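Feature request, filed as a ticket because there's no other form

It would be nice if the structure record came with a short human-readable summary line next to the tokens. Right now we just get the raw output. Example of a typical job, pasted below so the devs can see what we mean:
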Amino acid sequence: MSQASQTAVQASLDGLPGSTLPIKNFDPLKLADLGSDETLAWFRAAELKHGRCAMVATVGFLTQAAGLHFPGQLSSDVSFESLSGMNPIDQWAAVPIAGT
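Raw output as currently delivered:
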């Protein structure tokens, strides 16, 4: 005799740390309802990772905009000093594609 197993999705934003007032469970796209607990955990980890990358990028942007730079060469023909006089957008455009 075989029994059909049933699984219920237990994914919920209510029990996750970080849910605080005034916007307790902000999920306008209803991503918490897509899939299982593992899917919700993956979404949460991806959000944290991408948020941290954005914070590092912002610090780098502001550091370059303040004129701070590393000593030495970025590539064989581009020094960090030569990039320090440019704004961050122009600095990004001046980085060699091949990195050599």
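Something like this underneath would help us a lot:
Residues 35-94 form one domain.
Residues 5-9 have pLDDT under 50 and may be disordered.
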